[in-house]
Design brief:
With about 290 residues, the chain is an alpha+beta fold. The chain has eight helices and ten strands. The strands form three sheets. It has a four-stranded antiparallel beta sheet with strand order 1-6-7-5, with no helix packed on it.
Length: about 290
């Protein structure tokens, strides 16, 4: 799933390729992709892109045109992606053929496709007058890389939480933009068990977690800076230390990276770095590790 660093890189890429250009048409190809119907996508025809913003894991393309100010807001979900094409294929794509979900064509002949692999279709596109009309955007917590999101603000967020730290980091209404992969990476950098309860964090541990979060995300954003959209997935994978690396050696201590599996996801961690050398049992059968 694209998380904050990859979505930020896509925002930067689109900002340099889209802003100032005019939209010719937006074509939904997968029935499930469009989540709003008023205004219709045809309202974007003739609109000019005025900016591209990132809101957590959402991309927000702002436009101004005959219908006024409109925002094309996209969440790529687990298997979605954006492919820039210059030139864009001519003609109208046929529904049900391949992973293509939505195509945005510009009057200059270029544009982008939104694609989604697999059979579970969760990629979502909203056309709204205000991004806050999108429920997922409206409930977002603060951005972890925002200049005003300091240690005091982070500590205040966690003060009222009573759950495992892995789940807290992934909660978009608490902190926006962190998913399964980067929560694993942050906890590894902080030398902290994913099962540690938030209420057991002391001041020094909170500070260490905050530093690990800011550093891990900032470094990932920097690695992705200037990359074309098609290279971002490979960059993300190459920069991960523990996530997705079950059975490999931890790059810090050399211990074997372990995994805990759940119904629809898994987490990876290093026992030596994070749990005092103790392997974690399945979450449903183990007690919380302190």
């Amino acid at each position: 799933m694209p998380e904050l660093p990859e979505v930020e890189a896509l925002r930067e890429f689109l900002d340099s390729h889209l802003v100032g250009k005019e939209i010719a048409r937006v074509l939904p190809v997968a029935i499930s992709v469009l989540k709003t119907y008023d205004p219709p996508l045809s309202a974007l025809e003739g609109a000019r892109v005025t900016g591209v913003a990132r809101r957590g894991k959402f991309l927000d393309i702002a436009t101004e045109g005959p219908a006024g100010e409109l925002h094309l807001v996209t969440h790529l979900a687990r298997a979605g992606w954006l492919q820039w094409k210059d030139p864009l294929p001519s003609g109208f794509p046929k529904p049900g053929k391949g992973p293509l979900a939505l195509r945005t064509a510009l009057t200059e002949g270029d544009g982008f496709d939104l694609t989604e692999a697999g059979t579970t279709k969760r990629l979502a596109v909203h056309l709204v007058r205000d991004p806050a009309e999108v429920p997922g955007v409206a409930r977002l917590g603060p951005d972890p890389l925002a200049p005003d999101f300091d240690l005091a603000a982070f500590g205040a967020l966690l003060a009222g939480e009573r759950r495992q730290i892995k789940g807290a980091l992934r909660d978009q209404s608490l902190i926006a933009g962190i998913g399964n992969a980067y929560s694993d990476e942050i906890l590894h950098a902080a030398k902290m068990s994913p099962f540690k309860p938030t209420q057991n964090l002391g001041p020094e541990e909170t500070a260490a977690l905050y530093t690990a979060m800011r550093t891990t995300l900032s470094e990932a954003v920097e690695r992705s800076h200037g990359l074309a959209a098609g290279k971002l997935k490979a960059e993300k994978k190459s920069g991960l230390r523990v996530h997705g690396r079950t059975g490999e050696a931890c790059p810090v201590c050399g211990d074997t990276v372990r995994e805990v599996s759940f119904a629809d996801s898994s987490l990876q961690y290093c026992p030596t770095c994070q749990t005092g050398g103790k392997p974690l049992a399945d979450r449903r059968m183990s007690k919380l590790l302190k």
